[in-house]
Amino acid sequence: MDDGGGIMGTREENRMMDMLISLKADLASSIAFRYACRLADLAEIHLQTIYVEEVEKEGYPPGSGWVRSTWETGLIETAQREIAQLINTEKTHCPVLDEPIVRIGEREEELLKEVKREAYDVFLEGVLSSSDERLFYQKMRSKLYRQLACPIILVKNLVNPARVALVLAEHKDVKPLVNTFANLFEKSKLSVDLVYVKANRNVPAENQKIPAGTAGPEWEDARHTLDDARERLAFHGWTPQESWILQERPQAIGEMLAPYGLVGSRLPRAVHKSNMVMDLLSRVSSATLLARN
Amino acid sequence: MKILVAVDQNPYSAHAVVEVARLAANTWANVSLLGVQSKNAPAQAAADGSVSRALFEYRQRFLAQFDGKDCPYAQAALDPALVEVAKKVYEARPPSPAARKNLTLRLRIGSLGREILSEAREAQSDLVVLGCDPANGCGWSGGAGVPLKVANEAPCSVLVAKKKKAVKRIICCLDQDRVSQPSLEMINQMVTLHDGAQLVIIGIGGHEQLDAGVEKKMDRILRYYHARGIDPWIEMVDADALDAFVARESRWGMMAFWMGPQSILEKVFPRRKVNKLIKGGDASVLILR
To answer: What residues 4-43 of chain B have any CB closer than 8 A to a CB of chain A?
Structure first.
């Protein structure tokens, strides 16, 4: 089996996962940071936090030299104080952390530069769960999400990350998603389920949740996809606890995924509202692992 | 904690009694079961009439929820007649020996809503619980607007318990300026009562974001619950969309609202909307004060 891992590549054996956590002084970041700490209890992760102090173009002082340098130093010190407050609150519950990286500039640009510079294995940030799914789509379509080379974990709520669902909607999801998951969480105490989804806005309200082993011949594509995913997981030393086929409306599937602390999916190149998987991910309340092609 | 359970002789009251028994098993609250008899009924009926008999039956139902040795309430049989302890107020003779916690049977004569409110005030109850059936607009026979009147006018928190399928989520619209420790505790108890129910705390914002002060408050609430082993979800809802959100999410079984004086929540979700939810929806409604 080709175990290339696609764009992400395979982590060197026995190396800890390098995670870059983007923080701001807000609630979403506080939740995301605590979630990362919980994840680090279950997997070997090196956590690196980063804070970008955004300055409007007109906010920059004229000129250069020591005037500008002093101004930048002042900004960085203020930012460091703000973010240290957030980190220090959690330090006792979290594995050892390096000093946060502080940058000044345009947030997405600076994050992209940092990920490229250090070749992180995964990028994590928080967003508040909202009844308005436009926020989720804004993130998915952002320059940051389009251009990041590594997988992304988007945290909406602080939950126990121990149970993972890998959501497959078509056969081409198997390789990027399973490889991403297996490479990131090679040595971890997570458990994983496979979920094949056939999201359809027009299906009747009663939910159809079929154990993969009992699915009839009409589910041949689903069974084939799940079999391949199982085989690929087994190659990496994983055995899924359960495999399901779900046929439902996206909202209902999102709700059925509520018991999972991390829901994995492949991030499509173009994010449309018509994409059913994106629709259901926008309704997932916990955290989402987005795998690259 | 003092819980007042207002009952009539309908099945929803039996459901409310069982709910309170389960709550009391966690809190070891002092519980009072209150029936109200019409002033037009014969005087003798207060001591041993149908309302009085219903109270004794509810007591048995309440006690049946406890394992004998873990029960903080006296289980001995009571004298089957109530005695007048104040004008138009009757009570079962307390059992002997006294138990660690009180389970009192009380009956008042007068109009339903007014007597329940008087009892809540006089007993300084922390929580009034009453059942109702949404199929008939959540009215009581003999006083259609009783649950609404009590929910709106009680000096303490009120739980309007509706019998329906299991509560899967408890959706809490807290006033973001004035969240009190007792109301957080009350919600904590509801989560314990509905084992496995997901607690969802609503942050009301505008323009797709929360005010920084609100975020800080929500963070403190989150930490409060995390320290108690509960992982609530936070959901941000635009004030303009709160109506539709409540209508959609009430299907999960329980909605909680902070309705203190000058509550900001009242501006975006006024009392008449809460009343509509009590009358028409399937969800139990907890009014926090």
So the answer is: none
Q: Residue B222: which of A132, A156, A158 has the nearest Cβ?
A: A158
The ipTM, to two decimals, is: 0.81
Question: Which pLDDT value is given to residue A229?
Answer: 97
Measured between beta carbons, which residues in chain A are less than 8 angstroms from residue B245?
131
What is the DSSP track for A244-284? EEEEE-HHHHHHHTTT-SEEEEE--SS--TT-HHHHHHTT-
Q: Is the dihedral of CA B138, B143, B146, B149 positive or negative?
A: positive
pLDDT higher than threshold 80 for residue A85: no
Judge contact between B7 and B33, C-beta under 8 A.
yes
Q: Tabulate helix, strand, coil % of chain A (nearest 5).
A: 40, 25, 35
Q: Which residues of B18-30 are buried (b: 16+ CB within 10 A; e: fewer)?
A: bbbbebbbebebb
CA distance A150 to A123: 7
φ/ψ region of B110 (left if φ > 0, alpha if ψ in -120 to 50, else beta) reads left
Q: Do B234 and A129 touch (CB under 8 A)?
A: yes
**pLDDT at residue A8, as a whole number:** 41
Nearest to A192 by CA among A242, A155, A134: A242
The answer to whether B236 contacts A160, with C-beta atoms less than 8 Å apart, is no
3-state secondary structure of B258: strand
Question: Which pLDDT score, from 0 to 100, does residue A196 have?
Answer: 96
Mean pLDDT of B149-160: 92
- pLDDT over 70 (residue A57): no
Q: Would an 8 Å CB–CB cutoff place A251 in contact with chain B?
A: no
Taken in order A150, A155, A158, A159, the sign of the CA dihedral is negative
